Amino acid sequence: MTEKTASALPPVVDRQTWQAALDDLRIREKAATRELDAIAAQRRRLPMVELPDYTLIGPDGPIRLVDVFDGRSQLIVYNHMWTDGAQWQCGGCTGLTSQHVRLGFLDNYDARFVIVTNGPIDEALAYKAKVGNKMDWYSSSESSFGADVGAPRGAGFAVNVFLRDGDRVYRTWHTDGRGTEQLSYTFSLIDILPWGRQEEWQDSPN
Asked: For the chain, what percentages of helix, strand and coil (3-state, to nearest 5) are there?
């Protein structure tokens, strides 16, 4: 154990003191769970915006956005950052989306989860293969879709959710930045560790 590691240890107490501290924390954890339930309920009741009939590019060529649903009623899109000519694309986007290797469970919810990037489809598919990504990829390089949903060319990443009613598509939710963390299980695992994410902004033992 290094000196730095030893200095970052939480205080050592008896079992009763530890249990009392855990019980205090559990009150806040349960309150946070109930608040997240309330937020999810509010999210489900958001109004929505009808979208134009966008055409994306898939592995087999042009495809209408409505057909990306593949018969489902709900669609989650991860707008993957793309830098033309880069050997490696956004590490955060790559890491988050590579976690999702089994998405078949979404069929039970009439939903699908895909990646859309502003990069050319051939380069996007090559990158998918390079990093071993298991998700379905599409390109918005020949439409304004990315820019219109908060992920313009040369800018950041985002998550968007859409609802289909027949041939009509509606945008129901959007987030970016740290809002996308809720799609990642890695942060959930790291955040229960004593030293957490080990970021400068984080409040941790020192």
From this structure: 40, 20, 40
Residue 4 contacts by C-beta under 8 Å, 6 or more apart in sequence? none
Torsion of CA 35, 38, 44, 47, to 10 degrees: -100
The pair of three-digit structure tokens given for residue 157, joined into one six-digit string? 């990443």
Which among 23, 27, 34, 8 is positioned nearest to 196, based on CA atoms? 8
CATH number of this structure's domain 49-183: 3.40.30.10
Are the CB atoms for 179 and 156 separated by under 8 Å?
no
pLDDT tens, position by position, 43-68 = 999 999 999 999 999 999 999 999 99
The identity of residue 43, as a single letter, is R
CA distances from 160 to 14, 25, 82, 194 (A): 47, 33, 17, 33
For 86-101, what is each residue's pLDDT tens digit? 999 999 999 999 999 9
Cα–Cα distance measured from residue 36 to residue 127, given in angstroms and rounded to the nearest whole number: 35
Cα separation, 9 vs 187, in Å, equals 21
Please name every residue paired with 57 in a beta bridge, in sequence order, or none if there are none.
Answer: 62, 139
How many angstroms separate the CA atoms of 163 and 49, rounded?
A: 10
Secondary element (H or E) of residue 161: strand 158-165
Residue ranges covered by each domain of the chain: 12-45, 49-183
Query: Which of 153, 161, 116, 111 is CA-nearest to residue 138?
Result: 116
